[in-house]
Amino acid sequence: MNIELVAVDIDGTLLDSQSRISERDRRAIRAAVERGVRVILVTGRRFVIARPIALELELTTPLITHNGALVKHPQTGAVIDYHPLAAPLARRVVALGRTVGADLVCCADPEGLGRALIERISEHNVRLRQYLDRAPLVVERVPDLMAAIRRDPIQIMSSGPCARMDEFERVLAEDLNGRVTLLKTVYPQKDMTILDILAPRCSKAAALARLVARYGLNRHQVMAIGDNENDMAMLQFAGLGVIMGNAQHHLKPAADYVTASNDESGVARAIERFILQE
């Protein structure tokens, strides 16, 4: 298999359990790039907290963020591909979130570093507070989130205990009936789910497919590496879908290959096996 492009998820994949990139992963990515293989980071993260990782790895390829809703150049910040959520749908998501007591974040400003609009975050939602604290300068508290959504945002996201997010997902699916995309990132050991609400047909896979076509490649020249539910469509799009050893067991059969965990340099092992052939 002639792999010309590698799409790599960040959290739970490239980053280990201490949020670090192993030296083995760095070496493998550098070696792949030196062989002319394009390495693209594909993440649910906001641009502002994904960009430093791309810069650290000295990647010059586009950075796919917000689960495919926004693709930007990591060095220049130029927008390459953007699919916002329609403002009326975003306001409806906020209204439905209020009915289930969900903590909501509206992600806006695709041209800049981004803005995270919040109305309130529950005191007990420590992990979401920590998530927002990664880039505190772009967090903006507003008195009424629904009224603050005047233009189409990048997305709405929510995070909380798995059962509550499952309920919120059910409410959204019943009410909006395919008019939005619902993507989950689930960490059962932490009892935490991140629920992303995006424009229809938005996904990591869709954004990656457009970039692949732009490069004149086809899916059979792509290897994708991920670990969570929001990665599965991307892994299935790629000619070679690689899932991390730390992924939930029920996700693994859908991939073509299971690599080592994120604490065992699973990204490097996949690159070494299928690209570097070491």
Descriptors for this entry?
five-stranded parallel sheet, 278 residues, 22% strand, 2 domains, Rossmann fold, six-stranded mixed sheet, Hypothetical Protein, Haloacid Dehalogenase-like Hydrolase, Chain: A, domain 2
The CATH architecture of the largest domain can be named as 3-Layer(aba) Sandwich
User: Main sheet?
Assistant: 6 strands, mixed
Low-confidence stretches: none
Helical segment tally? 10
Structural class: alpha/beta
* Mean pLDDT across residues: 96
Beta-strand segment tally: 14
Structure report:
The protein has 278 residues and is an alpha/beta fold. The chain contains 10 helices and 14 strands. The radius of gyration is 18 Å and the shape is globular.
